[in-house]
From TrEMBL:
Transmembrane segments annotated in the record for this chain: 145-162, 168-185, 197-217, 223-244, 256-277, 297-315, 322-341, 347-364, 376-400, 406-428
Protein name: Threonine/serine exporter family protein
Gene Ontology cellular component terms for the protein in this record: plasma membrane
GO BP: succinate transport
Membrane topology annotation: Multi-pass membrane protein
GO molecular function term, any single one: transmembrane transporter activity
Annotated source species: Kocuria rhizophila
Domain Threonine/Serine exporter ThrE: 301-424
Record-linked InterPro entries: ThrE-like_N, ThrE_2, ThrE_Dicarb/AminoAcid_Exp
Length: 473
């Protein structure tokens, strides 16, 4: 009996070893709380936002018929309160976990358990054991795969910015080294801003070495392409999304994250340029105003597909899902180029393309088995304006003209991406709900349709974006 797992481990013991072993019996409320915190832990660790995490947890309490439950999720902390009687003080539980980046497989597996529980295929105890198994089997994405993803970032962004194939290869090598240095500094528990500063320094040094050995290397393109994955694009998109939907605490955290990341990178790049310029003189241009190259569609679209596929790979995507997300990212880039060719401004092209991408991300939630917000982040990554912010801040430090214009362009681009993506998601989700409401009215005449009905919720609509604070169940 000494080798049996503890009751809370979630691991099933062999029947022959302990046929009489009994799991502790939890009350309905205890089981709901346990499952809710397990789901919250998995979602937050896999990069889910506050809104979708809150909506998911409330669906658990609705299924267990617990009323007057409030949920608050912010910056890795989950607070759940339940007031079972009006004249009693509510019981409140607080759970903390470490926010993580996108993990496609963990997010999908958690969504499947949540759906099975809400639709009655699993009870709370079974769902809890499933979550224990998922967390036990979930693997931290290996450094080799993440480094491969960052290598793809270097190639893809170099092609998007108009770099030559020599520059793209150089950017791939520098990107891999930058990630290795970042991971090494993180391993010694240094604050992240120092890891990013080290990455910026290494990017300048690596691009300089490549420029000295390969004259075809465009130094500025190589640096920006190698650092593009670290820039403030994703955090800025998430921050604007949270501001628009009213999640101000989460938005503040994301804004600070974006500012800190950019500051660390710019500090490292600045030190690197000051260190390298005396050695190479004016033979290399470390700072240029770089924008998407719209003169060679094939390479630009290929670059966007490689960037999206690299993000998916670094986030745990595999097989056909990896290929589908890469293709989706390339098609969004093609849409931007196509709309721009019709005479519309670059901002209008980004707005229109992001609307379509947002709608498709909702429609393909079931097919891709991935939340629409996660899909949208992957396919819009090639368009994120982080590099414009970087160029504006760096240009200000070195006294370049039009540096402020780059920051303004970044703000407008971020607004178009966020507004377009959210509008597309909103229109698609409302259209799907309208069709479901009509279907329900035909099958159940005289009954009132409500979106929060237990039998109506599954992974597709639990994980679609929401546009208000769903604190109360």
């Amino acid at each position: 009996m000494a080798n049996l797992p503890p009751p809370d481990s979630g691991l099933a013991s062999p029947v022959t070893a302990a046929p009489h072993y009994a799991w502790p019996v939890l009350t309905t409320e205890q089981a709901a709380y346990k499952l809710a915190f397990q789901i919250a832990d998995a979602l937050i660790r896999s990069g889910a936002g506050s809104a979708n995490t809150t909506k998911s947890l409330l669906s658990i309490f609705r299924k267990t018929d617990l009323r007057d439950v409030t949920v608050s999720v912010s910056l890795g902390q989950v607070t759940i309160s339940h007031q079972d009687q009006p004249d009693k003080a509510p019981s409140t539980r607080v759970f903390e976990t470490q926010p993580g980046t996108l993990d496609i497989e963990l997010r999908s597996a958690t969504g499947a358990v949540l759906e099975d529980f809400v639709l009655g295929r699993l009870d709370a105890d079974e769902a809890s054991r499933r979550m224990d198994e998922i967390m036990a089997k979930s693997r931290v994405i290996g450094h080799k795969l993440i480094m491969t993803g960052f290598t793809m970032f270097g190639v893809g962004f170099a092609l998007i910015l108009g770099g030559s194939w020599g520059t793209a290869i150089s950017a791939a090598a520098v990107s891999a080294v930058v990630y290795g240095v970042y991971a090494l500094v993180q391993h010694v528990k240094a604050p992240e801003i120092f890891s990013l500063a080290a990455g910026g320094l290494v990017a300048v040094m690596g691009a300089t070495v490549c420029g000295m050995f390969f004259s075809i290397t465009q130094t500025a393109v190589c640096i920006v392409a190698a650092l593009a994955a670290w820039l403030a694009g994703i955090a800025a998109y998430g921050a604007v999304h949270d501001v628009i939907t009213g999640w101000y605490v989460s938005a503040s955290g994301r804004i600070l994250e974006a500012v800190t990341s950019t500051a660390g990178l710019v500090a490292g790049v600045t030190v690197g340029i000051h260190a390298m310029q005396p050695l190479v003189g004016d033979s290399m241009d470390y700072i240029e105003t770089l924008e998407m190259d719209d003169s060679r569609w094939a390479l630009t679209v290929l670059g966007a597909a490689v960037v999206s596929a690299g993000f998916a790979l670094a986030s745990g995507g595999r097989g056909w899902k990896l290929a589908a997300l890469g293709l989706f990212g390339g098609m969004v880039q093609l849409g931007v180029l196509g709309v721009g060719a019709l005479g519309m401004s670059s901002y209008s092209a980004i707005l229109v393309s992001s609307i379509v991408a947002g709608a498709l991300s909702v429609a393909l939630t079931r097919t891709l088995d991935l939340a629409s917000n996660a899909t949208l982040m992957i396919v819009l990554l090639p368009l994120f304006p982080g590099m414009l912010v970087y160029q504006g801040v760096l240009g200000t430090i070195f006294g370049l003209e039009d540096a402020g214009e780059s920051v303004l362009k970044a703000a407008i681009t971020a607004f178009c991406l966020c507004m377009g993506g959210m509008l597309g998601q909103y229109l698609a989700s409302e259209t799907l709900w309208a069709g479901r409401r009509r279907q329900f009215a035909l099958k159940h005449p005289g009954q009132k349709f409500r979106r929060e009905m237990t039998d109506e919720e599954n992974f597709s609509d639990i994980m679609v974006p929401i546009f208000s604070k769903p604190f109360n169940s």
